[in-house]
C-alpha cells in the first residue's frame, strides 16, 4: 500500500514546485491542495502544521514533514524512503 502524501501549495511558489518535483522524481503520487488566496484552507493547513503558515507544508500518512527544505533534508538523510514505503 502506498503512503498517503499530501502537500499544501501556492501555484506560483518556487519552493512548492521544487518539493513537488522531488516527489514526482521518486514516482510518488500525492494529493495537492492549492490554497492560493484561500484563508480558510490556509488556517486548516496551519492547524495541521503546528502553526506553520508558509507553503509548502507536506504530510505523509498524516505525519507533518514540514516544507521544501525539510523534505529535501529528509531525503538526503535517508529518512524519506521508509516513510514513502508505508
UniProtKB/TrEMBL annotation:
Gene Ontology molecular-function annotations: glutathione disulfide oxidoreductase activity
GO terms for cellular component: cytoplasm
Pfam families: Glutaredoxin
Glutaredoxin domain segment(s): 5-65
Domain of life: Bacteria
InterPro entries, sorted: GLR_AS (IPR011767), Glutaredoxin (IPR002109), Glutaredoxin_subgr (IPR014025), GRX_bact (IPR011900), Thioredoxin-like_sf (IPR036249)
GO BP terms in the entry: cell redox homeostasis; cellular response to oxidative stress
RNA-binding as UniProt keyword: no
UniProt-listed CDD domains: GRX_GRXb_1_3_like (cd03418)
Presence of keyword S-adenosyl-L-methionine: no
Signal peptide: none
Keyword list, A-Z: Cytoplasm, Disulfide bond, Electron transport, Redox-active center, Transport
Family designation: Belongs to the glutaredoxin family.
Matches recorded under NCBIfam families: GRX_bact
Free-text function comment from the UniProt entry: Has a glutathione-disulfide oxidoreductase activity in the presence of NADPH and glutathione reductase. Reduces low molecular weight disulfides and proteins.
Protein name (record): Glutaredoxin
Amino acid at each position: 500500500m502506498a503512503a498517503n502524501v499530501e502537500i499544501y501549495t501556492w501555484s506560483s511558489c518556487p519552493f512548492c514546485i521544487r518539493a513537488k518535483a522531488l516527489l514526482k522524481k521518486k514516482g510518488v503520487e500525492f494529493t495537492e491542495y492549492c490554497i492560493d488566496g484561500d484563508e480558510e484552507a490556509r488556517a486548516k493547513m496551519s492547524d495541521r502544521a503546528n502553526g506553520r503558515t508558509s507553503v509548502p507544508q507536506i504530510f505523509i500518512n498524516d505525519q507533518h514533514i514540514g516544507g521544501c527544505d525539510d523534505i529535501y533534508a529528509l531525503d538526503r538523510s535517508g529518512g524519506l524512503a521508509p516513510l514513502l514505503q508505508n
